[in-house]
């Protein structure tokens, strides 16, 4: 049984302030399949939470629930004391959400699209136009302000999505794979942006598979596997519990019971033999993930 906790900081923070987000025993099923199992988290203002886990662990499902996009769940969620189930529209005003994938209105230019989003948030038009222009330029899209987005690359679209989530200056920013498709310079901008937003007191909850980035920008890391919290603490706390290691290694230790190297070797062997289907099965067996869920003691 493994558990990593951040008792000290939670004790300290809970003595100082109320959580901005309180998730209590959150569970969610799709049909027969339970994908979230008893998730409880108190998140405090200004925290940068890196929410990590293997494919299918339940990260996107959690953030969709938090953003009010999946209303049918068990447990309770309050944001700034507002019950999400009872007042989803009030919660949505406090949250900026950047999804992993989204359909932009691609016949629009980024300026037109973002003005539309600003209108939905009832932002003052002149202030919104100024903010839109400055954010697009900061992301290197100054030359594309009036270009239709159906001509944009994946990374350019991702930047527009990011801006759309930040435009109304929300207290809580929820990012699902915000770095997907971004070039190296844009990753640096987003990392810096996350730090600066946190310094302003914004609470940031983001899902990512980029362990090196999570390690650097998060002050709290929550690792889930198969719908349960496996670990919850700062990177340093995780290192103390798991032995000094990179987050990538800690992730592998906690979420895979088999050898990832063997899994890769099995895949390569099958490509050489031409039997890809059996190779994928062999690789799955070698990696043998996910590990059995264990409950984090983070209260
Ligand atoms: N609308 C849906 N209907 C049925 N099953 C769903 C639905 N959405 C998600 N799931 C299932 O819920 C589980 C968790 O999915 P989720 O997208 O939350 O995982 P994730 O941790 O975000 O994964 P990834 O890292 O691959 O994005 C998966 O088994 C997925 O197949």
Write the layout of secondary structure elements.
Elements: H1 7-16, E1 21-30, E2 33-43, E3 48-52, H2 59-66, E4 74-79, E5 82-83, H3 88-94, E6 95-98, H4 110-120, H5 125-138, H6 154-166, E7 172-176, H7 184-199, E8 203-207, H8 211-217, E9 220-225, E10 228-233, H9 235-242, H10 247-255, H11 260-273, H12 276-287
Helix pairs in contact: 4-5, 11-12
Bound molecules: adenosine-5'-triphosphate (ATP).
Residues 30, 35, 53, 55-61 line the site of adenosine-5'-triphosphate (ATP).
User: How much of the sequence is in beta strands?
Assistant: 15-25%
Counted beta strands: 10
Radius of gyration (Å): 20 Å
Q: What is the succession of H and E elements? A: HEEEHEEHEHHHEHEHEEHHHH
The strands making up the biggest β-sheet line up spatially as 6-7-8-3-9-10
Subunit organisation of the chains: single chain
In DSSP terms (H or I, runs of 4 or more residues), the helix count works out at 12
Bound molecules: adenosine-5'-triphosphate
Count of discrete domains: 2
Mean pLDDT, nearest integer? 84
Largest sheet at a glance? 6 strands, mixed
